[in-house]
Please model this.
Amino acid sequence: MKEYLELRVDRKNANLVFNKNEGIILSDLVKKIVIETNDIRMKKIGELNNKLMGQHDFLYAGWRIYREYSDDEIRKAHFFQILPKLFTLAGEECGTKYDETSACPICGAGANMVTPLKIRRSRIPKTDISMTLGQGEEILVSERFRQAMEDNDIKGIRYAPVFSGKRQIEYFQLLPEHYFDISSKTKLGVNPHDFSEREEEGYYVNREYANGKRERVWFPPPIYKCPAGDNLGLNILSEAYIKNDPLLEGLDYFASRQTVGYKGEGLIRPRHLIFCSNRMRQIIVENKLKGFKFEVAHIVDE
Model:
């Protein structure tokens, strides 16, 4: 497996770490640079970025980690983490309701959805799986996906109806039958060089409602790593590690018991990681289902 870090680097500061001809210019201000995560410059990049941020500047802003696997690594893997296509709409914008009293009072994870998932049909990507900005449990799959899974007797999946307004549409909410614990071997943080467990400051948000009402809402500093163990961090930085459990035997689909992310401005919610067996991944690939990315996941004893 090769692991890469893709950065959106401030061009005026890029030469402090990177070679002049390294990367791709995206605009007058930004350059895309990709390095392997075992690059000896990783430590310097983090130290410089933290120093610049202390001066109200930065080395990089946007980033992502991605991994490439050999055919042999894919063939030998038992489970994969599924990374659905994300789209910028939340169920709460379309009438989905949550019971906040059921959420963790510290980090906001675990609020129960008390209505069917409601989403604007015209905004759903033309893929077989997608996840809303609300994330939490707001994962949609197509009828084509459901049929392929049922035809192959895939174990561990539940489906719930999805509505656009009052009309049920041809998508389903994808739900797991089982949840399992994330292992401490899984690395989480704000970014590859920042492992903060919470924000330093809270913030206000100005809201305006359809009835003309306006209000200024205070949000306390987000907590990324919950001391109660419900939410483990803002972003997953490594491959996922799941604690071994006898119930995993024979399962094709499951989710993590703990969440990743944070409770944002009423729309963004912590999400469970979702996983599939190698058999389920092969069915997805063979049926050319769209919207899926996969990373190898590991089952470990602790």
